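Review box. Two proteins, two foldings.
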Amino acid sequence: MNTKNIYSPTYRKNYFEGYSNGFNPFFQANSNNNDEAFEAGFHSGRIDYERMNGAISEGIPNRIVTNKILEDFLLAGLLGLSIDIEDYTSHQLSIIRKWYLSGVEKYDPNESIYLFAILKKNGIQPF
């Protein structure tokens, strides 16, 4: 594969497949895979996984932290909501804490009141 053409649909597909597999702590890299895009994606996914969840060699946590999970904690902080931190490791909690506190720093009670009023008007219970 031409490494200069990182914008090709095939490269992107293989890269994201590798990233997805790298982020999966149960997936073992296959040394027979010579696809450069897949390997780059796998390496990137594994780095992101271990940054958020700790080294795989230290064990796989009960709950996996992803970017989506971190965004949910940020949003909870922005809205001043309580969070469930049960079953997260100390490494994960240090990452979650940063995101949640980042949201808390930007917390505006008036915005939350307006949002909760809109949710209530539409029959949605935020808690």
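Next protein.
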Amino acid sequence: MSANNDDKVPVFRQWRQWYWFVIVLLALQVILFYLFTKHYA
């Protein structure tokens, strides 16, 4: 094994952008599930 860890992030340039993407996606899902349950209640 190599001590050099130069993994490239495939879509975004930084891991921080991946974290923000996941947070926004999860927040969007929460909002959509809230709206769906409110609509069909």
